[in-house]
Amino acid sequence: MVTVQSDARAKAAKTETRSPSWNLVTSRALNLLLYLNFCLLTGSGLLLWLRELPRQGPGPLNISRHGWGEVHSWAAVVFIGLIVAHLVMHRKWLKTVVSKQHPILLWGGLATGVVIVLVLLLVPVG
Questions:
Q1: What's the rounded Cα separation, in Å, for the pair 94 and 100?
Q2: Strand positions, DSSP E, 71-114
Q3: 74, 68 in Cβ contact below 8 A?
Q4: Structure confidence by residue, pLDDT tens digits, 9-42
């Protein structure tokens, strides 16, 4: 009789652990969106770089060269937002694992990224 109850409890516990948590589902969805967005960025970037698209008129998928540039630019903006969301979601891991094991790499990488962004924003145009 005791084994029947403990078997039922064990099955209930297994069922509870099998149901994905909100964080896991969100993380998987975010990773999928990052992957698909990366594919769009790569595809549109290679299309603009390697294919000779007409200056005017429709190109692949009936989108002009300028339109593909817009697609690529907006995909980059979305990618930045997804990356920020990914870093915020995994901030605990970054804080506990990376900063304790290799703090110079973490802070050096962050500082390098900030410098690159600031240089590109502040460089004179024209």
A1: 9
A2: none
A3: no
A4: 656 555 555 566 878 899 999 999 999 999 999 9
Neighbours of 122 (CB within 10 A): 7
How far apart, in Å, do the first and last CA atoms of the chain sit? 84
CA distance 31 to 15: 25
What is d(CA 123, CA 126) in angstroms, rounded to the nearest whole number?
Answer: 10
Q: Write 76-83 long-range contacts (CB < 8 A, 24+).
A: 76/41, 78/37, 79/34, 79/37, 79/38, 79/41, 82/30, 82/33, 82/34, 82/37, 83/34
Place of tokens 């990914």: 86
Amino acid type, 43: G
pTM value > 0.85: no
Tokens 């901030």, residue located: 91
Whole-angstrom distance, CA of residue 96 vs CA of residue 53:
48
Domain boundaries, the chain: 2-89, 90-126
A 10 A CB-CB count for 69 gives 14
